[in-house]
Amino acid sequence: MQIHTLDNVEVKEDGHKYALALIKEGENVIKYGFPIGHAKRDIQIGEKVSPENLKSNLAGIIDWSYTPYDEPEAKKSEAFFMGYQRASGDVGIRNDIWIIPTVGCANAAAKKLAELTGAKAYTHPYGCSQLGGDLETTQKVLAGLIKHPNAGGVLVLGLGCENNEIHLMKNALGDYDENRIRFLILQNCEDEMAEGLKIINELKAITANDTRTKLPVSALRIGVKCGGSDGYSGITANPLVGLVADKFFEYDAKILMTEMPEAFGAEQILLARSDSKESFLAASNMLKGFRQYFIDHGEGIADNPSPGNIAGGISTLEEKSLGCVQKAGKVTLRGALNFGEAPNGKGGLYLVNGPGNDQVAVTNLSASGAHIILFTTGRGTPLCGPVPTLKISTNSPLYAKKPHWIDFNAGEIINGADKAALTNDLFDLIIATAEGKESLGEKNGFEDIAIFKDGVTL
């Protein structure tokens, strides 16, 4: 344990926070220049600020006001990477074969086919016993994954008696490449393994002819996500990802950010950069909708952070959110995307609907077309999504402890490392990953999906 002093205040625990001045009961506690809650009682100079003496200010629904944003003059540059040009006009950075079940009952067959062929099976427990909007969400997420350009070919496995029947999935897909997206209903064939192997081998033959070509960086979609946070998340990894987001924005790339509850208390920072009233309304309505989701289920708006976040030094959801939104840098907000929707507009920031849950968040980013996900973590996790997921540690001890999990260490900022140099290093790693360098998650085979559920199960 290191002991630091700042303005005669002794800091006794790394990653935690201490009062620099007397904070009286009821007064707001300020961090990052914004309130992170109010004092439950008087907090003395040098006293640790924690959930014991700090309470969130969050409650209810807020109506944010729109103010026209004077977007800075574009500094668009041109850069390129080597990727796969798809017939749809989209681009991919991987050329794998994916197996995606329409229903959890087909999971075992999907896993077996993956073992036999080297394809990647993305299994889930849903697709049957779902109704209405809950089923539609599953279909939209699966459709976004099935059409993801990182997949050179996809085998969609149905069972044959599920709510999410193959013909409904085809409706959800809309137009698709029939040459590269194939379907198999397990109950309709005598030997499903033989049929599945035949289709996968056909897809492999097609993708064998695919080669990387020079493509503009503007075609990339970069997902940003933070996992379990610590007191350094908003000081090291998240701001660093924000600087990288700004750099990609200079090349007109798209930045996708989800975790709607982890913007609670910091929404106005994002909304103030809306490029139009239409974008503002789309984003603010999505954020309000997630607040309402909490209320509808009888939960408090401020029911976060998790025990791991608190142990790492986060005391209120506002504190986590103010660190979380820094991953978006200063990128202009272009709008909001619902489940499975991909951005079609100019380069910029797009909010993606969904919770902060790590598994669901990386799935939602992938289903909305993110090619790569930048995942900051102060606690460490092996979790990765179906697209390359680069883990960025907030502190150096975590990087040293989990070198097989962590792709990049932002903790060096605490040691005085040059932020501009780190930004360039992380940018270069992302481009190398886009060109085929495996993330640690890919090397370890850590690739999962989880679908957001909000409805009745029959």
* Largest sheet geometry: 7 strands, parallel
Helical amount: 25-40%
The structural class is alpha/beta
Number of helices: 13
Query: Which whole number gives the mean pLDDT?
Result: 95
Poorly predicted residue ranges = none
Distance between the termini: 52 Å
Q: Determine the strand fraction and express it as a percent band.
A: 15-25%
How many separate structural domains? 3
Sheet with most strands: strand arrangement? 17-18-16-15-19-20-21
Tell me how many strands there are.
21
Radius of gyration: 23 Å
- Overall geometric form: globular
Q: How would you portray this structure in words?
A:
- This protein has 458 residues and is of the alpha/beta class.
- The chain has 3 domains: 4-55, Archaeosine Trna-guanine Transglycosylase, Chain: A, domain 4 (Roll), CATH 2.30.130.110; 96-209, Rossmann fold, CATH 3.40.50.2300; 215-444.
- It is built from 13 helices and 21 strands.
- The chain has helices at residues 107-117, 132-146, 166-173, 192-207, 237-250, 267-271, 277-296, 307-312, 317-324, 358-367, 396-401, 419-434, 440-444, and strands spanning 4-6, 9-11, 17-18, 28-31, 34-39, 48-49, 54-55, 80-85, 91-92, 96-101, 120-121, 151-158, 181-185, 213-216, 221-226, 254-257, 333-337, 348-352, 372-377, 389-393, 408-409.
- The protein has a 7-stranded parallel beta sheet with strand order 17-18-16-15-19-20-21, sandwiched between helices. Strands 11-10-12-13 form a 4-stranded parallel beta sheet, sandwiched between helices. The protein has a 3-stranded antiparallel beta sheet with strand order 4-5-7.
- Strand 1 (4-6) and strand 2 (9-11) form a beta hairpin.
- Helix 1 (107-117) packs across helix 4, helix 2 crosses helix 3 (166-173) and helix 5 packs across helix 12.
- The longest helix has 20 residues, at 277-296.
- The model has no long low-confidence stretch (mean pLDDT 95).
